[in-house]
User: What shape does this take?
Amino acid sequence: MVLRYLDRPVTGMHLEVTNRCALRCAECVRTPLRGKLPATDLPLELVQRTFTVEMAAENDLAIVICGTYGDLVFHPQLHELVAHLKALGLPIRMTTTGSHRDREWWQRLVALLDPSDSVAFSIDGLEDTNHRYRQGADWASIMTALSCCVDRVQTSWKVIVFRHNEHQLDEIVAFARDMGVDQIRINKSGRVPNPDHPLVPQDPVHHAVKAKNKAALLARLARHRGGDPDALAGVRIVPRCASPDNVTIFHDGSVFPCCIDVLDDPWFVARRAAFDLHRVPLAEVLAARHWRELAASWPTPSEAPRACLLRCGISDELWDEYGGDPRYPYREGVDNRRIRFKPGPGG
Ligand code: SF4
Ligand code: SF4
Assistant: This one.
C-alpha cells in the first residue's frame, strides 16, 4: 500500500530510534528531563513489522535516522536495525554527535551501508570548543567515528554557530576538509530567541531570522494568554509537513508528521493512542482523521497546536525577511551554508 499523509505520498521517514543520550546540550529538549526519562528504544521487531518487503517496494522512501530526544548511537541494536532496512534496499541518512562508540562499532556500521548513504556529524567546534554546547561529547571517539566513515559513505560535518566558536569558523572548515569529510554545513541556531544570551554569536551576521521569529511568536503567545484575542492573528502557519518527507516514528512508537518535540504538546498527547505504532499499523496512523483536523486548524493559529505555531508559524513582520534571507552566510554576502569538498554521489 502506498503510504499517504494528507493525500500526498510519503517520501521520507524519520526514525528516532532511542531517547538515550550521554550528552547534555544546553538547549536540547531532553536535558531538563535528564534522569526522569525512562530509557526507551524503538524495538527492532516493530521496525521489522513496519518496514516490510512489500512496503519498501510500494513506496519510494528515504530513511533518516536521527534524534530529537536521543542519539542513534545509543540504540543497543542499531546494527540489526540498519541491516534490516538495507536488506530492503532503502537509502539511509543518519545524524549523530559521533561520541562514545569505538572503532569496531563504527566499522560494523559502515560495512552495512552503501557508498551513497550518509552520516552527518553534529560537531559545534573543535577540540577546545565542541563540548561547550555539546556537553559530555568525547572528542577522541568523534575523531574515530569520522575516520571510519570518510571515504566509505557520504559524510557531513554540521556546525551550529555559537558565541564560543564564531571566531574559528575558517579553522573548523579547514579541519573538516583535512579530515576528509565530503561537505560541511554551517547553521545558524534558531533555538535561542534572546540575542543577549551567552550562546548567541556576537556578530549579527550569524543571527538567524528564525530566532527573531521565535521571539516574536513567543511574545504574541504571551499577549494572547494575557487576554489579547488578536495577538495571533498576525501569524501564518506554513506547514513543513505539507511535503511529507519527514514523517517520524519516535522512540516510543508514536508516529507524527514531523520530527519536532511534540511528545508533550497537548494536542498530540490527547490523540496519541491513534498514532501508536505498537497498536495501529503505519498506513492507518497516516490515514487518521485527526490529520485533517490538524490541517484545518493551521489557517487560524489561535486554534492550532502550540507546537505547529512555534515550529511552522511566521510572524507577519518577519515574513519578508524570511523570504529574502540567505539563512546561513558566515561572511557578509556569502552563502556558505554548505561547502562541498568532494563531488556528491551523482558526480
Ligand atoms: S546530542 Fe542530541 S539528544 Fe543528546 S543532548 Fe544533544 S541535542 Fe539532545
Ligand atoms: S509542527 Fe505541525 S505544521 Fe509543522 S510540520 Fe509538524 S505537524 Fe506539520
About this structure: Residues 239-241, 257-258, 260, 307-308, 311-312 surround iron/sulfur cluster (ligand 2) (CB under 6 Å). Residues 185 and 338 are 4 Å apart (CA to CA). The radius of gyration is 20 Å. The longest helix spans residues 209-225.
